Amino acid sequence: MKYLTILALFAVQTASLHAADIKFGVVDMAKAFAEFHKTKESAEKFKGNVTKAQQEMNERWDVYKSLLGDIQQLKKEMQDPITTQQEKAKVAADFEEKTQELRALEQEITEAQNRRQQQLKQEDMQIRKGIYDEILVVVKDKAGKEAYDFVFDKSGLSLSTVPVLIYYKDAVDFTDEVIVELNKEAPADGGAAAEEAPKAE
Hints:
- The protein starts with a helix and ends in a 19-residue tail after the last helix.
- By secondary structure, it is mainly alpha-helical.
- It has one domain (19-196).
- It has a three-stranded parallel β-sheet with strand order 2-1-3.
- The radius of gyration is 29 Å and the shape is rod-shaped.
- Helix content is 66%, strand content 5%.
């Protein structure tokens, strides 16, 4: 809401500057993010980290399932009528020990999953911030060289999910030029992972 108010005040002020030759630029930051070769490379790396984390959790769950199987077997032995009282006492002790171990392991797995998910979330946020920072450097450099007075992100949405910048007369969209600059040093196979690039938020 504050952003919209600033835009409204800005529009009123610029409308009164008849003699000024103000140059406006527009950039689709979401498109630039999606088509930046580093976004695609980071997506592959992040996907690998997610897969590794899932494998780690699967290994813990395998241990859990194995322990659960042992407990179920001990339960059958306790209920077996041919098992002597002495044997049942020993089995019951093993059953109680493994049950406590199972509960502790279940709690450990839950905490590990939550911790790993938080780590991956933070990693994803840092990757996105780093990429957007690089894009902003190129946008600002382009704006300076082309003498733009103001540059707006046309992919920005209001609270009602309507684009904040719907139309502005004589605004120049230089998104494609930014993308070319970002990808001028991209590897030869830089476009291979385009389908798996993370979506911009």
